[in-house]
Protein 1
Amino acid sequence: MSLVQPSGNRRRTVIDLFSGAGGMSYGFHVHPSFRIVAAIDRELGKPSSGKGRSGCNDTFRLNLNLAPMPVDLAHVEDTDIAAARRDILGGLDLDVLSACPPCTGFSRANPNNHLDDDERNSLVARTAQWVRILLPRVLVMENARELLKGNFAHHFGELRRQLEQMGYDVHASIHMLDRFGLPQRRERALVVATRLAVGAKGLEDLWQGYEVDRTATHVRRGIGHLPPVSAGERHPEDPFHVSPGYSHPEQHRLCTLRELALLQGFPEHYRFGGESLSNQYRHIGDAVPPLISHQLAHVLEWMFTGEKPELADCVLPGTSLHAEDIQPATIQPGRI
């Protein structure tokens, strides 16, 4: 393994590929040690509606004050990446590369994914192209659990092979994210790869010896404090507390945009851009939960500095998880 040193006292640089609505970036954005220097997302609309803008780049810009580049990452050449390195980083090194390719082709929510290898799945292995040229100190990736255990896990297998060939230590694991305080049962794959001498760490290392009070992961904790609204009604004090239909657990309507955002670990003040309410719902569903990415930012800072953070300091303000929800573990879970 090649050994590199932490980047000193400057804020650590982050580039976010497949940046979406900013779920991964936001967790790093609010951490004082990191700075998002670039984001890239083609922001394609829902496949059933034909080609068009999803508006996710507007959502990203509203919350991170940075406009992502609408580039198709499936058709990027080495010269393009080298130019990006020059224009974005100048003489700086890249500390963190986030790459969260679309999970649509892996997710078991689509039964065809057990039979057909979606062409978008190849974007996973193409991440190695960016790593080879940008040489980030750390790579982080989130996706559906099938990235690691599904019928087409060979895409990640190829990425892992190339990363290890380049000297990266790769840690890949699958977790139910409510274990880390997310108020929903969401099973995801998390990947951390690094050239740092300390090696790769995961969220389970951060939570070693601790667990979350289960009431903190209940839906009532996540959204029970919001005022009631009727179907189609937009709350006057929160334009994103709006719903078009009927599947709320207590009120006769679909969960509002704000309710689903809170259940997905977004802070209460997060704003959503674009012109389509249906696309705004998709911004949330496709996102890495910021409640989780903020914890990942602390894990990476631990890797850079060698100093493990206090778990209570890893809680993202404005979300349903509070520092007092963290307690000593009664049973120590093993790695998956």
Protein 2
Amino acid sequence: MDSESAYTNGQAVTFQLDEGETAHVLHPGQIIAYRGPSESRIDRLMNVKGMYRKKKLIRADITGTCEFIAAIPPSYSLKPIPLTRGSDLLYDYRHLFFYTHGVQMQTRILSVKSMLITRDAVKMKFSGNGQIGILTEGHVIEVELHPEEPLYVNVGSVIAYPENAHMELSVYGNHLASQHMSYHWKMTGRGTVLLQAGRESQRLENDMKDEGLFKRILREVIPFGGVFIK
């Protein structure tokens, strides 16, 4: 299956399915255009687990030969990930946008402590032949783990991590830094961690818009600042 993206005011992703290929789309409401036999799209009820995790009732099973276009919100990205032999990444199911025929899913239960921090009870491990598509805030970044040197990653920015990685909830830096940062995973091991780069962008945008304190400081520091800076 091929997919390519076009950025305009938002994002449109075009999917092309060859004969016999099937894509299971978990957000069928985002499909805005379709070309192919009408009977090649079959919508069906998701199972109970899927309904709970995705907060959705319906998925669309689309079989080639055909093509369709899905609309993605402007601040989000859709990343296709081909599954490879031996892949042991665990994913958050809510980020899953589609998966192809031949992909198997296995559930991994998190510890109680991790559930309280991440507000999620399970992770999903995908295997088999095919690919999955994950929906993220901003671009996806891949970072290699080290067996001994820890990597600190924001809990809310983690998309996927190796099943055998060693993880501890932690903060880092001096006392002031640790007081004002969100929880991080302190991770060691082998493999790749997938992060979404736009997770904290909204906080930065809010900081940039809130100029009250910044303006007050400038008025005090700059000579005649109270006159020139309104």
Protein 3
Amino acid sequence: MNDFSAEAMGLVIREHREARSPSMTQEDLAEQAGYGKGGAASISRIECGIVSPRNRRLAAIALALQLTPEQLEQEAEDRTRSLARRRSVRPVKLRDQVAGTKRRHAEITGKVAQRSKVTQELVEPFNRAHDAACDDFFLKFVGLAEGVGGAPEPEIPREETAESTGEKPPEIRVEAMSAGIANAIRGAAAGGTAGAAVGGAAAYGAFTAAAAFGTASTGTAISTLSGVAATNATLALLGGGTLTAGGAGMAGGTLLLAGLVAAPAAALAATGFYVLRRRRNRKEEERLRTELEAAEAALEQSQQGFDAMVDVLHHSTEIIEYIGVHGTHALERWRTNLPPEPRNWETLGHEGQEQYGKFLMVAGCFVAVSSIDVGALLTAEPNTLREKHSSIDETLRFAGKSIRSLV
């Protein structure tokens, strides 16, 4: 766990940036540190103490400021201790204590609001990218693949094969999802009811149900469910289908993360009445101070989870956007080269069959990225957060690399 607060790191970075000669703006720092579109907003969040940069980002910022990450971290640790000492000093007069407590309450409330705003700002582009990729690539591929009869039955990898083959868990997960989608397509092509003809969100749920490498909310393995149960379980897991199909979008449930991010607000709600009171006695002031300290601790404890969530949503959106653009273009080229209907596996030819397999893999990556449990990062204990984030990062890196090699 870091020995510095996000607030302290933000102050240190801002001071070094402003001390540069010639002057360096937030836009300049963002560009030199390799941030993409909207980079200045990311630097602003860091300097305001809303987000603390992860290792890779911190190294890039340090380089832009002609420092080392270790220098920034050490200064941030020193500043964290300095801020803590300053806040621990309690004024003697009650009215000064009241003023200080009101100021701290306003700071915490502001940070909670900022976290919720950041979450919303990240979720909205993710939802847009997901819905475009789902409608323009995933469902269109499924529709085309349904028209191909006689596709071979895919081999579904098992988790235990990871040890014997040396494959990484993300590879096993994506391959299992791709195989599940292929089996659902085969069933639809053979006259099943899981196809795109049943309609947007339901088709999406039916096709991804067999691919989800996990369990439904009941704990039942999704691969053992079928029909409406499979559809409902997967839609619950993945967020309700696309916006255009009447669902909430893959990250629809993620919109609720604002509530999790703002968890300390629960501690603040009970204190609001006393904060607004013109007068209060020392006992009330002491109780309010204790509750505010608890809210501050909750914010600090959840900071690393929040930072991890921001990192994951950024990376996920980039991957999904790539599928929506490049995957869709590649699929359209494949469609124009398909043989006339009725089609079967043999008439696709070697090149068409190979492309079919690539699109299945991209579809598996799409579902793997879209179904990442972002909320688990916010609720993870500090000792398990690093492991969870590392596992998610492995999935994202594997999916991103695979997609770019396939389309």
Protein 4
Amino acid sequence: MDWDAMGPLLERGAEIESPLYRDAAQWLGTLADPARVRRVLDIGSGPGVLTTVLAEAFPHAEVVAVDPTPQLLERARTRAERAGIAGRFSALRAELPGDLSGLGRADVVWAGNMVHHVGEQSAALRDLSTLLNPGGLLAVVEGGLPARRLPRDIGFGRPGLEARLDAAHADWFSRMRAGLPGVKDETEDWPALLATAGLTPGGTRSFLLDVPAPAPREVRDYHVTSFQRLREAAEETFGADDLAALDRLLDPEDPGGLLLRPDVCLLLARTVHTARG
């Protein structure tokens, strides 16, 4: 993976989604008293956008960005400095989930969209549970709703293009999971999996991001990058009509493209599952 190229994309996407994560972090503050939380681990932190959000929600805590990628941790450090939290921020490099034992314990552990990258997800949750102080809170982000950026009928090509892209992504996700070391088929009932890991489920909520049309330029630019990647992945499986529609959407001068059409939006949901140690 070219992390120098991927880092800005990951950071931009997390920044766009940060309003829903601020809502999620505020909810966590009703489950774990911010006045008592002294240490927060952000497992799979990437470039640290969510680490700074968690620092806002828990203003008395040391916040720790944990990721296996040095380039992303460097971005997290830079972001912490810009946010004015460098004095209570640290970054730890760790392969997930193998290196978790060296991270120390915390009052809140956030695992954002990383458990599904581990073959045996229930084992990953058990490993995460060992990081909790007694009574500590684990928050696992998994699931939600796929993004919607366009209407069903975009005025050219077959209607339902994004639904077909979702189906293609679901097939890719299944292949990705099947190729992981030690993969185990598990029903993704997250509260049940958390209970199996020896934790007490504490509630599940989904958080919505609604950027209505016409979306601002920074959202459109992110859509273009995302659709470029989808276009590359669909090259061998999509028909000529869908590929032609994607090409029009990516054309910066086409009035029907993502940069110019008036109906571009962003609507998605992320689901957070919580449990106590």
